[in-house]
Description:
By secondary structure, this protein is an alpha/beta fold. It has one domain (about 10-280): 3-Layer(aba) Sandwich (Rossmann fold), CATH 3.40.50.720. The chain has 9 helices and 8 strands. Strands 3-2-1-4-5-6-7-8 form an 8-stranded mixed sheet, with helices on both faces. Strand 2, helix 2 and strand 3 (about 60-65) form a beta-alpha-beta unit. The longest helix is centred in the middle third of the chain and has 23 residues, at about 110-130. The N and C termini lie far apart (about 35 Å). The protein binds NADP nicotinamide-adenine-dinucleotide phosphate. NADP nicotinamide-adenine-dinucleotide phosphate binds next to helix 1. The site of NADP nicotinamide-adenine-dinucleotide phosphate has 26 residues, from helix 1.
Amino acid sequence: xxxxxxxxxxxxxxxxxxxxxxxxxxxxxxxxxxxxxxxxxxxxxxxxxxxxxxxxxxxxxxxxxxxxxxxxxxxxxxxxxxxxxxxxxxxxxxxxxxxxxxxxxxxxxxxxxxxxxxxxxxxxxxxxxxxxxxxxxxxxxxxxxxxxxxxxxxxxxxxxxxxxxxxxxxxxxxxxxxxxxxxxxxxxxxxxxxxxxxxxxxxxxxxxxxxxxxxxxxxxxxxxxxxxxxxxxxxxxxxxxxxxxxxxxxxxxxxxxxxxxxxxxxxxxxxxxxxxxxxx
Length: 280
Ligand SMILES: NC(=O)c1ccc[n+]([C@@H]2O[C@H](COP(=O)([O-])OP(=O)(O)OC[C@H]3O[C@@H](n4cnc5c(N)ncnc54)[C@H](OP(=O)(O)O)[C@@H]3O)[C@@H](O)[C@H]2O)c1
């Protein structure tokens, strides 16, 4: 029997790309889906697209800016008020940004969204996940993590020239270190955690509305070589459904994959957790 059976599943970034397809496929499988989207209009549109195909789908929409601490707090309060438990949390919302930006609370934006968004929401929802045990947290990471090392003396990239891919890779390495430490900390609570690489997927990822060469080139590459969002959601859906998950592990193409050496450093994972806690 699939692990998803009877589980309520929360998915961030559920209106587009991999998150939308994950929501659609898990709804088709009969799960109750909490779609967490940044924008109400885009979320409503995504929900309508799923409902058109699956009129009986069990869907709820919540909005939050995952780069904002106060917005995540508000979302968590609403979810705690609405539900007694959550069985699966899929941290998926993220992106790569061509210009240096900061979050409301002054963090480098990519780190603030891609890592702290996962960290903050997970932490805030742990009581609901504990109530839904056996439960699961799935973190969408990336093979891009392989080029990265965490520089604790400059986590917010203030001392270096801003390079989009470099800060993105670090945030995806942070996803793996977070997964590793989270798995250790929540195992006894009946919560399992895993991370994944979805493949190179043709989504809105990396594409902005501007016309600069780098965004156009990225989109052209994704159009030519990227897999479809439907294919890109396969490993996330697999991790939600499989009966047997290796706690703290990294997956790609629905099988275990060894992450970079930097992602296997338990001491770095512990230190990142402590820093994230102080930032949260
Ligand atoms: N595409 C790839 O090749 C690839 C490869 C490896 C890993 N990934 C990872 O896959 C995940 C999903 O990306 P995707 O490819 O599906 O891209 P996408 O189509 O751009 O979807 C990203 C989702 O995240 C949401 N999001 C972005 N910023 C947000 C914020 N501040 N608050 C709340 N939601 C926010 C987006 O909402 P809006 O629609 O409102 O912007 C959208 O729903 C990301 O974590 C990415 O790092 C993607």
